[in-house]
Write a structure and sequence with these properties.
mainly alpha; 7 helices; 147 residues; globular; 49% helix
Length: 147
């Protein structure tokens, strides 16, 4: 994909930043957005997200991808744009679209699998407590669909 893209908004120190920090902590076990990018934002993920770049005159290529993955704001924008592509589904059936749903989309794409147990649940809830986000209530589950 080659082409010019629009400038990205500054999402640093926003509620989206807090959410993405918790998504990254959940995925990697640390709070480094750059570490998160290394483990969970492939070139294809970045392209699907619209290939956010640091400059409005940047071509979409491996170099602009690497530049983006070295910049916290660009990483936040990439995750925000990717999860926003799926029409805000309620992955955990709590009647809200929130950071918990964004986490599910980041981890499982359009499958939107809710995080209900294990290290991902513990990591997310630990981060949520520190950042003021609501923790995941693992007792809320989606009803099973009869086949």
């Amino acid at each position: 994909m080659v082409g010019s893209v629009a400038a990205i908004p500054n999402l640093l120190n926003s509620s989206t930043h807090s959410c993405v920090a918790c998504i990254c902590h959940t995925r990697t076990g640390c709070y480094s957005l750059k570490n998160c990018a290394n483990y969970s934002i492939s070139y294809e993920y970045w392209e699907i997200a619209g290939a956010p770049t640091l400059s409005t005159n940047s071509d979409v290529n491996k170099e602009t991808y690497r530049e983006c993955m070295a910049d916290d704001n660009c990483i936040i924008n990439t995750i925000d744009k990717y999860v926003g592509l799926f029409n805000n589904p309620d992955c955990n059936c709590d009647d809200l679209y929130d950071c918990q749903d964004m986490l599910s989309i980041h981890l499982s794409g359009e499958n939107c699998t809710s995080v209900n147990s294990g290290p991902f649940l513990r990591r997310y809830n630990s981060c949520a407590t520190k950042t003021g986000l609501p923790p995941i209530n693992s007792s809320v589950t989606c009803p099973s669909e009869d086949v």
